[in-house]
Amino acid sequence: MTSWPLHQRARLGLGRTFQRLELFGSLTVEENVVVALEADSSVGGLLSEVLRRPASLDVRRRAEGRAVELLELVGLTDHAHARTADLPMGLARILEIARALATDPLLLLLDEPSSGLNDEESSRLATLLRTLRRERNFSMLVVEHDMDFVLGLSSDVYVLDFGKMIASGAPGEIRADERVRAAYLGREVTDAGAAGH
Fold this sequence. Notes:
alpha/beta, 3-stranded parallel sheet, 10 helices, globular, disordered C terminus
């Protein structure tokens, strides 16, 4: 499917976020979600918007209503009219989730969702993702280096080290795996080992 156009992938149920934020900074939070909703519709487009055709206006009204619902779902209602460029990183990451949900995905691909977040923001995002997954019944594929974030969010974990899979299993198994600990969590240094260094 890598050769398929993005809109075709989205219509098949794939949603995604990016490691590097891909938001429209000059638009408001709500407008960012409206753009995603309008892009998912099969009606409208620039010409319809310029001509203000009725179908285009109807798409806009439905998109605005749905955007309000999505912002409430992810907890961004109070920021709906804020300029996106002014959002702190934690809220911007949540906005990306709202935009990805605009297509009602069956599979949500998340690329480094906790990148740039502090511990509190990461915890809030993980809680939101668990809640959304449970309530909206979609699957997630998360690529992430923050092991605490991954282990607290995932049911199945696959660990890569320099492109090679070194472990797979449930979070508890992964946390206890010595290869994973060495690659991502570090090894405990004893006094005897530290004395020579």
